[in-house]
Amino acid sequence: MSAARVLVVEDEEDIAFPLVRTLEREGYDVTWVDSGEKALDELRTNAAEVVILDLGLPDMDGLEVCRKARELAFEGAIMIVTARAGELDRVVGLDYGADDYLAKPFGLAELQARVRALLRRTHTGPTPVVAVDGLRMDAGARRVFYREAEVPLTGKEFDVLEVLLTNRDKVVSRDKLMADVWDENWYGSTKTLDVTIGRLRQKLEQVKVPERVVAVRGVGFRLEGSGHDV
Known about the structure:
- There is one protein chain.
- The protein is of the alpha/beta class.
- It is built from 8 helices and 12 strands.
- Helices cover 40% and strands 22% of the residues.
- The strands form 3 sheets. A 5-stranded parallel β-sheet has the order 2-1-3-4-5, sandwiched between helices. A 4-stranded antiparallel β-sheet has the order 6-7-8-9, covered by helices on one side.
């Protein structure tokens, strides 16, 4: 199996160099760029499984890079690394399509653990296609379709839907969703789950998927064909 490819987008050399060396020692194929435009150019021509993205870039905000990467149909994982540690920035970053968020300063061991967790979610082996009422989820290809239309989901949106679809018509607790979709290294607010659920709902509604993500107040969420929030 070829080495997983990681794109590091960081304009500060004193941060980028040790980060690149650490990832290369882990066996990853690492490319480093120092601007948002270079990152987008790289993603247009070369596949990457994980992007480590600094927000404070010299030419554009990292959130804009994140948004444009998703518009380019980049399906890999995006981990934001930033000195902006506020919860609002965290939620906004996830709303732009990021999968994880790490505040500076951070330990290299923690970053390595986060990268491994993201890669576990993008290297799952093929599984049978799950189909419910015209909604098809191909876990191997990590793609979702409703009838003939593809539902463009980020990594975390896909993972949340997979858990809910596997447990269709059953309530899935917030704790289980956080444990299954994020990992033991996630120390952020559970509001990140609400942000992801909100985006997922919107995307399903846009293509008129009859399945609804229903909130069960104080417990969690349920995927069902019809019904009202509890």
